[in-house]
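Quiz preparation item.
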């Protein structure tokens, strides 16, 4: 049996947090860690598995636990004696996760920024997987700094199934584990899960734009109001939640535009990140005059006013099931191709760009709410588009620069 017990402490290198061992000859002069500067950790072995449990930021308490653990292992004790120096909640993984989620909820801003309410829901749902894993393995202490423990968790995740009976895929496994990494980093300054993250991967989801024929078949399968909603997706280039939170007042019937913007009063913020100028991604996207005319007739027929949602659910709240509704339409019409709202967003951008002969890339990037042109290039895959390169060559050959060859 390996009876080695070492004390580690949090350190910051190149803006990233890590841990390093504390030599025994430095224990005497060990100082408390400042609040927010990490923890001490106790590393020891249970059989062949290495454990690294946080023991707080106070040096005296950490040294006492180190000596106690060494004594226990020398005496052959399998489990540590009860510790009355710290509250039990600090050694409980369930309490630690509950505290983390509560802290994230505290950052849900009234202004529509900060942490999004949906993000907190996702954190809670994904961390429930880890709680189930710990319950099955009868683990109650925080072990997110233990590499072997985390790899065992990944293996367990791959055996889990979704509500439809299918096993969790690579992408979902990656996303679930990334939330545990966020928890480990935020709550304990532990970066060990990053080593596991580096080994996890998934095939990037390939979303192709609809062909003109597919779009025509899709519109023909819809009722007039369904067609209006999903043509709004196509023209606005908006994401699901952006469409769900669009209000009547966001439409400008003079300029034929829709304003995609945060809704602080609905606790909705845009996905786009702030740039150096403080821009949070709100944008004005042009809509076709005929579509605007149909929207105006729809608003008058429904009796909607400026503060009302444009396409609410049956309870008058933001709609959360655009994807499901579109799938039902495709199934009803037996369409031979895949449909989803995000595919309409990409289709709209692709049609606007027209292989480099249409709307400039920089303008489409703004309409999409992207933070860089590179992101838009990857989104439209235009680097691999031969027609786009041919168009550029024609402009170069016939442009004003041609007089200076």
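Solution:
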């Amino acid at each position: 049996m390996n009876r080695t017990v070492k004390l580690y402490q949090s350190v910051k290198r190149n803006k990233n947090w890590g841990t390093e061992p504390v030599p025994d000859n430095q224990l005497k002069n060990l100082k408390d860690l400042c609040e927010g500067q990490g923890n001490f950790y106790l590393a020891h072995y249970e059989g062949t598995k290495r454990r690294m449990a946080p023991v707080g930021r106070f040096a005296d308490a950490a040294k006492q636990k180190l000596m106690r653990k060494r004594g226990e292992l020398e005496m052959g004790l399998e489990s540590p004696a009860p510790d009355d120096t710290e509250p039990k909640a600090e050694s409980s993984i369930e309490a630690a996760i509950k505290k983390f989620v509560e802290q994230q909820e505290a950052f849900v801003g009234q202004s529509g920024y900060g942490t999004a309410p949906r993000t907190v829901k996702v954190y809670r749902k994904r961390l429930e997987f880890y709680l189930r894993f710990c319950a099955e393995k009868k683990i109650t202490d925080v072990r997110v700094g233990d590499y072997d423990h985390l790899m065992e968790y990944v293996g367990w995740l791959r055996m889990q199934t979704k509500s439809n009976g299918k096993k969790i895929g690579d992408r979902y496994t990656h996303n679930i584990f990334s939330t545990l990494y966020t928890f480990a980093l935020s709550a304990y300054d532990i970066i060990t899960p990053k080593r596991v993250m580096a080994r996890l991967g998934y095939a990037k989801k390939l979303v192709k734009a609809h062909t003109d024929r597919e779009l025509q078949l899709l519109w023909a399968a819809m009722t007039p109001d369904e067609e209006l909603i999903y043509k709004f997706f196509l023209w606005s280039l908006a994401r699901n939640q952006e469409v769900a939170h669009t209000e009547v007042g966001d439409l400008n019937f003079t300029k034929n535009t829709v304003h995609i913007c945060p809704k602080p009063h609905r606790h909705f913020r845009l996905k786009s990140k702030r740039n150096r100028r403080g821009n949070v991604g709100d944008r004005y996207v042009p809509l076709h005059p005929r579509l605007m005319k149909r929207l105006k007739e729809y608003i008058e027929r429904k009796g909607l006013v400026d503060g009302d949602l444009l396409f609410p659910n049956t309870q008058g709240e933001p709609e959360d099931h655009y994807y499901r509704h579109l799938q039902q339409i495709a199934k009803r019409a037996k369409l031979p191709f895949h449909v989803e709202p995000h595919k309409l967003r990409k289709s709209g951008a692709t049609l606007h760009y027209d292989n480099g002969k249409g709307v400039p890339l920089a303008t489409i990037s703004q309409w999409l709410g992207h933070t860089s042109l590179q992101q838009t290039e990857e989104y439209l895959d235009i680097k691999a588009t031969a027609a786009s390169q041919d168009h550029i060559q024609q402009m170069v050959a016939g442009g004003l620069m041609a007089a200076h060859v």
